[in-house]
Amino acid sequence: MNGLARIERRAGLRAAWTGLALLALAVPAVAAAVAESAPTPARQTELIYLLKQDCGSCHGLTLKGGLAPPLLPATIAERDDETLIETILDGRPGTPMPPWRFQIAPQEAAWLVQQLRQGVHAE
Ligand code: HEC
To answer: How many domains is the chain partitioned into structurally?
Structure first.
């Protein structure tokens, strides 16, 4: 191998290592962005409490319905996420469903909808 080929080969290897190093930096950044969208564990506990106490006062403590319709996986299955998130944030004008925008952030409403879809454990 002549000198020039060796230098080129080394440059190629260096580029590959740089690429790998950048990838290693990017992966945790992506993981952090995903984690950021979920509420912290403490906030999750608060949100579940709110769901049972506040939402439960109308939707039933076990969300099986009461003054308001049930919020069970089967009963919300036909609705898309956007509709449910909007309902939580803005309420349903003309019905008793109040807006929660001041207590619940949009990404928290999205997380709550996920929990409702999975079925929040009734106690
Ligand atoms: C004062 C009573 C009341 C409270 C408190 C309340 N809701 Fe509601 N909610 C309603 C009523 C009534 C409806 C049905 C509105 C309609 O007729 O479209 C509803 C509808 C909904 C829907 C749409 C269900 C569907 O099938 O389309 C969701 C989701 C929802 N509420 C979530 C919540 C959450 C989450 C909370 C607590 C943060 C909450 N609600 C608190 C009365 C309430």
So the answer is: 2
